[in-house]
Amino acid sequence: MNLQHIAIIPDGNRRFAKKMNIPVPAAYAKGVDKIIEVMEWSKELGIKMVTSWGFSTENFKRSALERRMLFRLFENKIKEFIENGRFKKEQLKVKIIGDISRFPKSLISAIHGLEAETEKYGKFQLNLALNYGGRQELVEAFNAAMSAGIRKITQEDLQKFLFTSDLPDPDLIIRTSGEQRLSGFLPWQSSYSEFIFLKPLWPELQKEEFMTAISEYEDRQRRFGR
């Protein structure tokens, strides 16, 4: 299989809560677990890297109550996965992309601990986009390049200052819930990615549906402009 890197826009958590008549935090908890589950499905296929959006820059516009709920959930899930040995079992390295400086200090500490805990693993990697926005990433990369004294910025120069500077571009981007847009997710990195939009809401995504998406990707011919 030539598919090595999948990026995920896990859309539909709140709609899932409404559909199933469950609390929103419970739906998001299922959504976090689904990210790990999709990573496991990917590993079965030999796919070495998954990047998932976890919290966008626009999510700060949500209510303070919902933000606190999400931050608490993220922190608790990190502790849970470390304590139960989930990352060790999967030999899974976790890397954060985005600006987490606006998060609560306890969550920032937990995130740094997660990256340190999984740094020794490397066969498979999960990248989590937290407080990530594609336009903001590009603005910050341009500013960083100019601060470094680069006046005529090339593509190679800009690449060095992206959050994903050491990562390959995604081969495939999957978005759930039937929405068909990027919403600012990896605009630079997705230039030659394939796209597949799935109808299930993120927490209800099933392995068979994921595998069907992978099969569809495999049937495509990528030309990269040639």
Explain this structure:
By secondary structure, the chain is an alpha/beta fold. It has one domain (5-219): 3-Layer(aba) Sandwich (Undecaprenyl pyrophosphate synthetase), CATH 3.40.1180.10. 45% of the residues lie in helices and 16% in strands. It contains 8 helices and 6 strands. It has helices at 13-20, 24-44, 64-83, 86-90, 105-118, 134-147, 155-160, 207-219, and strands spanning 5-9, 49-56, 92-97, 124-132, 172-175, 194-197. A 6-stranded parallel beta sheet has the order 3-4-2-1-5-6, with helices on both faces. Helix 1 crosses helix 2, helix 2 (24-44) packs across helix 3 and helix 3 (64-83) packs parallel to helix 5 (105-118). The longest helix has 21 residues, at 24-44. The chain is globular. The chain starts with a strand and ends in a 7-residue tail after the last helix.
Helix/strand layout:
Layout: E1 5-9, H1 13-20, H2 24-44, E2 49-56, H3 64-83, H4 86-90, E3 92-97, H5 105-118, E4 124-132, H6 134-147, H7 155-160, E5 172-175, E6 194-197, H8 207-219
Parallel strand pairs: 1-2, 1-5, 2-4, 3-4, 5-6
Helix pairs in contact: 1-2, 2-3, 3-5
